Amino acid sequence: MLDLLKKTILTGIGIASMTKDKVEELAKKIVKETKLSEEEGKKLVDDLLKESDEARKNLEKQVKQFVKDSMKKFDIPSRNDLKKLEDRIKKLEKRN
Fold it and tell me: Residue 16's CB: how many other CB atoms inside 10 A?
């Protein structure tokens, strides 16, 4: 039952965008309404916090990759590319 409840919650809400406090608040409300034992409630809170953190990290990773791919697609130089050019210009300036 706990797994089904967790999946429903994770699917039904944007868990990646929830703060730790909101996840805890939601889990405590569910524990109270479903009359889960203290141990089951603690497990639910811990599991939801873990899932929220993982979802947030995954979302961040996907956004970074999207931005990186978009910059490449539109031929926008990266910070590293600009740094290489600056270094190259400095070397050329020193020659003169």
Answer: 17
